[in-house]
Design goal:
Length: about 325
Amino acid sequence: MKMGFGHPPPGQTQPAPGCIWVRRRVRQLLRCFTRCCSLCLDCMDILLRVLGPLMVLLAVFLIGFVAYTFFTIIVPQLADEGTSSPMLLGQLALGCFILVNIMYNYAMAVCLRAGEPPPFPGEGDAEAGDGSLSLRQCQKCLRSKPPRAHHCSVCKQCVMKMDHHCPWINNCVGFNNYRYFCLFMLYLALGCLYVVILGYRLFLQSVAPIRKRPPNFRFADAQCISLSWLISLCIFLALCLLGGFHAYLVVTNQTTIEFHINMGNRHAAKRKGEVYRNPYDLGHSRNFQEVFGPNRFLHFLWMMPYLAKRPTGSGASFPTVSELEPV
């Protein structure tokens, strides 16, 4: 028997008109919700592009303010309290060393491009057909999309070994500048801890009643010391969390994006009774050298990127654990 168009098959009842109406409205609401989410994400991307330069200026201002307070107020106050000259010179030298490394690594993280993949073969660059590259193509920027590369919706381009887009550096964190980003956080945390330790006694004096302060302790100096000490403490605590997370990512050879992807893969494998392993986890030592170059950890040369060896590779391909295991 031939069925007419739109009629249900035998044995199946047609949904009630009310159910059809509800389903249509639900689909319309879902489409409207999806459009609203997409619009919110686009607005967030625009906001990050606008706020990026302002966040960089704010970061430079905060670092400069704390450094000014340390060198022009805290150190002279320590000298007035009877700190010996050799100790004072050592404190100044260590402070200068930390400040120079903070600004150097921050400048490199801001100014250095995170790593843009080459054009897709056949899209204007005949040399882009390197066999080491994956043949995937990004459908948004139309460039090659090597393994571990992701498209940044803020920068509007793909980034090799993309970790995240950081508004504090107005740049993506990727293959080329990840070690500078990590070292900036490390030196910034050391600098904040240095100010917190050396300025602790002066901070207590600055928040004490005026009659209990030393006679040469001006009100403006007390305000600068208390504000700088609180800023340093807050930034240090925040960096302990963020820096600790990135230290874990470094030793496990993951990016922030891959951390969330691997966590989902790990849960899916656990439900199947299997064990998921990150294919790029080569062991702590090799993972560390993937980010900071072929430099030994205990030699601490990796902390000075202007002297240390650069990381190997081009960012287009990465060794996997299957390549290291014997067949």
